[in-house]
Each structure stands twice: as structure tokens, then as C-alpha cells.
UniProtKB/TrEMBL annotation:
One of its GO terms (molecular function) is methyltransferase activity. It comes from the Bacteria. PANTHER family: TRANS-ACONITATE 2-METHYLTRANSFERASE (PTHR43861:SF1), TRANS-ACONITATE 2-METHYLTRANSFERASE-RELATED (PTHR43861). Residues 39-129 form the Methyltransferase domain. GO terms for biological process: methylation. The keyword Transferase applies. InterPro entries: Methyltransf_25 (IPR041698), SAM-dependent_MTases_sf (IPR029063). This is Methyltransferase domain-containing protein. Keywords: Methyltransferase, Transferase. Transmembrane segments: none annotated. The keyword Protease does not apply. It comes from Ruegeria marisrubri.
């Protein structure tokens, strides 16, 4: 992967993975969080969910953590209107600081591993703290070739029971979960699809063409099996 080409494609996209504001609001409602709470968005990307968290929790103090400087810059710009109650730092989400009433992580815990990430975050939670994270899952039923190819580079893929076992291994319990399927993926892929078209029209070099082709193939596989490709959003807490 040519990372310069990757970030050329992903520059100024609204999100870096499937999801929507309703996912964030669901987690806050199920956890009963409001008021002067502390929240971490671990792997916040360009700040889409961090912005929703800040809007939904007007008295909260929030920290977004991201490694690529480009995403840090974009998230800071996106959340600048919230002033100093929202900060975005360039750092390692395995060491988020804290303590937090909620650690939110959309599609990023796989960089650490579910069990490993939850174990790393345990000491970053308040005594009543929560973690909400999304993770790829294999849903029940026959899998098409497109669905199998879509997840071919993610050998850790398992079903809901498999992720639940990893959560239990980390010493947490699942309070609730919901599937992220269909429209929340289109929310991610539609701007990406448009960005690919724009860059192809500009005569990209070979490295960028390779990245565009790979992303276009990913989108095509999803379009061929959109009802079989899912993340699950889990709301968990230490057992």
C-alpha cells in the first residue's frame, strides 16, 4: 500500500468507515450517559462520530485519538466549534489516558484486537465506565463469493458469538449490540465512490491508480453482497 496515495484518496472524506449518527445516539441512550461526562473516541478518523458525541453531550469533555496526522488535522477542524471541551490528539489509542465514562471506537479496535483492546482500555475507564465499539462480523446464513472475498484480508472475522467470546475473555460483559448493515455502509462508500471518479479524471499516477482500483473493487464487492456484510456495534462494560 502506497500510503501517500491512500491519504490522497481519503483526504477530506466525511467518515473512515461505515456508521451513522443513530449508532452513537443508540449507545448513549442504552448507557444512560448525559451531563458532565468524559468521553474518548479511540481511532476518531476525521471526527464524524466525535462531532456527533459533542453535539449529543453538550456538557461533556471529549478526547479524540488518532495516529495519522491528516486525520488529526481534519478532526480538529471539524470540532473546532466546540472549543476546548473537545480536543484531538495524535497518539496511540492503546494508551488513551482517562479516566473516561465512555470509550467509543468505530471500526478501529481491530488494529489492537478485541480482547487486547478492551484489556488495554480497562484502566482508562471510570468505575462505572462503558466501551462501545464496532467490529466486523459474519452474519448467519449462506455467504456469497463476493462476501467471502470482501473479508478475505481479515482472517480474524467471526460471528457474534465469536466476538462475544473475545469480549468475555477480556473480562467484560455485553449489555447490548446492534448490526451495522446496508445504509450506514452507503454513507461511507458514496463519498468515496465520488472521490475515486474525481481523481481518475485528473490523470493519477500508477501508485494512485492501484489504490483507486483496490477501493473500487472493495465497493463493488460490497454492492454485490450488501445484505451479507456487517459490523456489529457492541456496548460493553467490565464484568
Amino acid at each position: 500500500m502506497d500510503w501517500d496515495a491512500f491519504f490522497t484518496l481519503h483526504k477530506d472524506l466525511p467518515r473512515e468507515g461505515p456508521g451513522c449518527a443513530e449508532d452513537v445516539l443508540w449507545a448513549l441512550e442504552r448507557a444512560g450517559l448525559s451531563g458532565e461526562v468524559t468521553v474518548c473516541d479511540a481511532g476518531c478518523g476525521p471526527g464524524a462520530d466525535l462531532e456527533v458525541l459533542a453535539e449529543a453531550l453538550p456538557l461533556a469533555r471529549l478526547t479524540g485519538i488518532e495516529k495519522p496526522p491528516q486525520f488529526v488535522k481534519e478532526a480538529r477542524a471539524r470540532c473546532a466549534r466546540f472549543g476546548d471541551r473537545v480536543r484531538v490528539i495524535e497518539g496511540d489509542m492503546a494508551e488513551p489516558g482517562g479516566p473516561y465514562d465512555l470509550i467509543w471506537s468505530a471500526g478501529a479496535i481491530y488494529f489492537l484486537g478485541v480482547t487486547e483492546g478492551l484489556q488495554a482500555w480497562r484502566d482508562a475507564l471510570t468505575p462505572s465506565g462503558w466501551v462501545a465499539f464496532s467490529e466486523p462480523v459474519r452474519i448467519p446464513g449462506p455467504q456469497s463469493e463476493a462476501a467471502r472475498e470482501f473479508w478475505a484480508e481479515y482472517p480474524a472475522l467471526t460471528d457474534l458469538e465469536g466476538v462475544t467470546a473475545r469480549i468475555s475473555q477480556a473480562g467484560y460483559e455485553v449489555v447490548d449490540h446492534r448490526l451495522i448493515i446496508g445504509e450506514p455502509w452507503e454513507t461511507y462508500y458514496a463519498p468515496l465512490r465520488q472521490r475515486i471518479l474525481e481523481l481518475r479524471a485528473q490523470g493519477p499516477d500508477d501508485a494512485l491508480v492501484e489504490v483507486l482500483d483496490a477501493h473500487e473493487r472493495e465497493i463493488s464487492l460490497w454492492e454485490a453482497a450488501r445484505e451479507q456484510i456487517a459490523y456489529a456495534l457492541f456496548l460493553v462494560r467490565p464484568a
